[in-house]
Every structure is written in structure tokens, then in C-alpha cells.
Amino acid sequence: MSVVAARAEPGRGRRRRLVSPEAATAYLLVAPAVAILLLLVGYPCVLALYLSTSNAVVGDLGRFVGPAQFTRLLGQEIFQQTLRNTAIYAVTAVSVKVVLGLALALILAGFGRHRLPGSRLIRAVILLPWIVPTALSTVGWKWMFEPQFSVINWVLVRLGAIAYISDLQWLGETALARAAVIMVNIWRGVPFFAINLLAGLIAIPDELYEAAETDGASPLARFWFITLPLLRPVLATVVLFSLIMTISDFNIVYVLTRGGPLNSTHLLATLAHQVGLVTGEIGRGAAVSLFMLPFLMIIVFYQMRLMRRKWEW
Amino acid sequence: MVAARVRRALPLYLAVAPFVLSLLFPFYWMVVTSLKQNSELYDLQAIPFWFRVRPTLAHYAYLFQRTAFATWLGNTAVVAVLSTAIAVVISVLAAYALARLRFRGGETLGAMIFAVYLVPTTLLFIPLAQVVRALNLGDTRWALIVTYPTFLVPFATWLLMSYFRTIPRELEESAMIDGCSHLGALLRVVLPTAIPGVLTATLFAFTLSWNEFIYAVTFVSSTAQKTLGPGVVTELIRGDVYYWGELMAGAVLGSVPIAIAYALLLDYYISGLTAGALK
Fold first, then answer.
1. HSE (CB half, 13 Å, CA atoms) of B205?
2. What confidence tens digit (pLDDT) does each residue in A124-166 have?
3. What DSSP designation does B241 have?
4. Is residue B187 exposed (0-12), middle (13-18) or buried (19+ Cβ within 10 Å)?
5. Which residues in chain A are contacts of B158 at CB distance < 8 A?
6. Backbone angles phi, psi at A219, to 5 degrees
7. pLDDT averaged over 10-residue windows placed end to end, chain B, 279 residues
8. So what's the ipTM on this one?
9. How many inter-chain contacts (A to B, CB under 8 Å) are there?
10. pLDDT tens by residue, A261-313
């Protein structure tokens, strides 16, 4: 309010303008951002819509074929398989990440509460899987799943779970390959959940727990009636965010399996890459990618609602 | 006293141990593998967790002498530094306007930038590849320098907006009464106060660019223009032959710069991560 007064002061002759000096400055400041987003996000969006309704291939923009690509995709075995894979991948990975991330956050909160030595160091090192380049750390995992020299299998042999190191072909059998890509996704994502949920836990006022304790509430009751409800906004934000990232994942599958064996690990993004760029059917590839859009829109909608609610507090 | 403290602490240490071990083991395993001689690496009888024969730097030497690894490292650094610089400048300007100035369409624009921030890179990579080719940037590092701001700007703008909002308006107002324009107030008053925010945004933008993979693997195909991720993933694996020692050495070296930046600036990372999260 006082800004208005301060702004009105310099009054440079002209009384009425179409755009106030403040707004003019603002448009100038946002112009580069708007330009780059229009050219490199807005236009590609339009192009995606065009391509996916065309029969474009590399070097030829093709012609309009309407929703033919979408209907054809929906009828294809490989695409149905990919949708199923994506659903399994996202639901499994995100649920496990919630559980493990929350467990880790609760442990770390305990470290903080009792001021235990090493808590800062532990918090620092557990974030590493999230921070380093996923494509490269997944190469490390690929070596751990190697058919002849898998360190995981080496341990399993010593534990007596399998007879030979080559007994489990992690990336060669459909169920195991699926488990492998999900495992790496969980490994990479748990730190993100843990650190964010920890921030949410720390924000819960101690008095609530103290009051509950004097009322004789058990630790489980305190978790159920205080921690979980108060953690819900953070939990919802993190889950929505992780859902987007997991549904749209590419790196892990591309490096580990390229979608194989028998397309059992293809996600929308890796299939789009294969169809659109390896095979060169750009139109169909763009259509595959666009199947992420409905999920994305639902998540953006909820995410925005969550944020607005937070602002009202 | 002490006994009670230990009794309370021990379960927590025991509980956190499996998490720490499983989260860190892949890194340990990568480092150990990268230092092992081939004869030991492919020996089923060897104990995998430690060295039986002398460790070697041969895999690292191979990377620099026999592959384009040094070029990829340089390309990655150039792409990350330039795209981060472009994105942070653009974002500071936009975030200031969105957080502080009143103009028509401001709120809608803020919401749109947030929505774009949630758009995954894998949604638009195919049409974007066409755009890159149309701009005559296909198969060059510039394809990445120009396209990375599409995900860096929304993220950094969003992060900076929340920082700018925490700076008291009085600071700018007094600067403007002293004759500063909005732009002057931004440069002389707001930016110096918001340095932690700008640093966080820069750090995250740099990390996101350094780690980016799908654009890098689809827009660039010639060896001399590649960045680290695609270089290691596509060129150190020839046909069915995997050079595991070199692969691990490459993965370790490619992660080290980020790990160092992270170790030095941990608090900024954590504040950025929990402020708006990153992709």
C-alpha cells in the first residue's frame, strides 16, 4: 500500500498511461522468461499436438491423420504392456518410497531430538543417491546386476539362497528386470522423501506431543493422531511430485534394460524414444509421450490446490 | 545417565544403519570396481568387497588416453555453466517482477511457470528435437545450452520468488524514495539480501544441468559434442562388450564434481530441496 504512495511520487508529467511504469518494468523483466518458455515449451507443445495427429517420420512432417495414432497405439500389445508397466512401476516405487522415506525421516527426527552425534553427517550422506547423475549411478547398478559377476548374487550364493551366481538373471527375466528397475528408482528416491518428510516432522510443534504424552497417549497413538495428520500436506506434495517424476522416468530404464526383456520394463518415455527416435516414427513417438499429459494435468491440479490451501493458513 | 542415553541412542543407530549401508553401497562398489585390476574384476573366486591384488588406476588412465572422456567432461562443464548462467539471470528478473511488482497477468504467469516447472522433460523431447534441428543447433552442445533453461527457469524462478517474498518491502521502499528505480532497487537492495537464495538456485540449476540425460542423449550424437552421461552410457559399451572397470571409473569421475559441490554447500542444497523440491 505504501509502495503505491512511493511510486506515485516521481510523477513525470504524463498523468494517464496505458501501462503504469511499474507494470512496464515488470513486463520488461519477465520478457526473457516468457520468450524462452513460449519458444521452447509452448511451441513444442503445439508441435507435439500436431505431430501426434500426423503420420510424420524423420525428415517428413507427414500429413494430418487425426486421432489415428492414438487409437492405433491403444490397440497395440506393446503399448498396452507399456501402460501396465508404467502403472506397476509408479505405484510400487512410490508406495515403497513413502514407507521407507517416512521410516527414515522418523529415525532422523529421533537423531535430532536426542542430539545424537553424527546426525548431520548421516543426513548428508543419505542424500547422495539423489544428488549424483542418475544415468551414471544406474551404470553402477547395471554392474551389480551383471549376469556373471553380480555382487548381489554373490552374496545370495554365500547366504545359500541360490546355488550359482548366474542363477538370477536380473536384467534377463521379465519379473526380475521389473524388480530391478523399481529397486533402483526406490534407491534414488528414498532420500528425497526422507529429507522432505523430515522437514515436515521438525515443523510439528513439540507441545502437541508433550500434551499428548501427559494425556497418556501411546507412541503409536501419537504417531497416528498427531504426526500423520500434521504431515499430510507435506506428504501429499512429495507423493504428487514423485508420481510425476516416476511416471515420466527415462534414465533408469534406458540404462538398465532399454525396455527389455520382451518390453517388460518399457515406460512411456522409453517407448516414445524408441518409436520416435530409434525407429524414426516421430508422430507416433510424440503420441506415446502425450499419454503422460492426463496424469500430469491431474497432478498439477492437485498440487496447485495444495499450495493455495497452504497460503491460506 | 550415560547408560540411559546409550539405551535410547542404540536403537536409532541400529535402525539407521541398514538405510545408510544400502544407500551408500553402490557408490562404494563403483569406487572399488574402478580401482581393481581386470584379472581380479572377472575372477569369480575373488572376494568382491576388497582388493586381493594391488589397486590400479589403469581404468582411469584408459578413460583419458583412449576415449573422449576428457572432451565429455569439458562439454558437460561448458553446458552446465552456460545454461545455469543464462537461466539464473532470466529467473532473477522474472522472479522479482512476479514477487514484487503489480502488473496485469502477473498471477496467471506465476501459476503458468509453476505448471511448466512440473512438466517432465520426457513429455516434449520429441517436438523439442525438431525445434532444435530447425534452429540449426542439432548435434551441438548449443542444443543443450539453449534447451536446458526450459526446465531451469521455471524451477529457479519459483525458488527465487519465495526468497524475494521474505525480504521486507521497507528495504526497497527506502531505496526508491532515495531515487532508485525498481531495477535499481532490485540490483542494489534486493539481490544482495537474497544472495543465499540466488546461490541455492544457481547450485540446483548447475546440478540439474550436469545430471540431465534425455535431452543430451537425443539431441547430440557425435562423440566430440557429447556430455558425460551419454558418453559413458553409449560409448564405453561396444556391442556386447562391457568395459566395467572403465565404466565405473567414468561413473565415479562424472559424479565427483557434483558430490564436492554438494559437500561444500550442503545447507543450500537442503534448503533448496525442501523449499520446492527438484526434479
1. 35
2. 899 999 999 999 999 999 999 998 888 999 999 989 999 888 8
3. E
4. middle
5. none
6. -55, -40
7. 80 95 95 91 78 89 94 97 97 94 91 90 94 92 96 94 86 81 82 89 94 96 94 84 90 93 83 57
8. 0.92
9. 293
10. 999 999 999 999 999 999 889 999 999 999 999 989 998 888 888 877 654 33
Say if the Cβ atoms of A140 and B26 lie within 8 Å: yes
Cell 501402460 identifies what position? A83
Can you give the pLDDT at residue A64?
A: 87
First to last CA, chain B: 45
For residue B138, give the amino acid letter: G
Between CA B48 and CA B55, with CA B50 as vertex, the angle to 5 degrees is: 110
Three-class secondary structure assignment of B37-62: CHHHHCCCCCCCCCCCCCCCCHHHHH
B150 vs A36, A272, A300: nearest CB? A36
- Are B22 and A187 in contact (CB < 8 Å)? yes
List the alpha helices (DSSP H) in B67-177.
69-100, 106-118, 125-134, 141-147, 149-166, 169-177
Residue type, A33: A
Nearest C-alpha in A relative to B218? A277
Q: H helices of chain A, where? A: 2-8, 21-37, 43-52, 68-75, 77-113, 119-126, 128-131, 134-144, 151-158, 174-202, 206-214, 219-222, 228-247, 251-256, 268-273, 282-290, 292-312
Chain B residues within an 8 Å CB radius of A248: 120-123
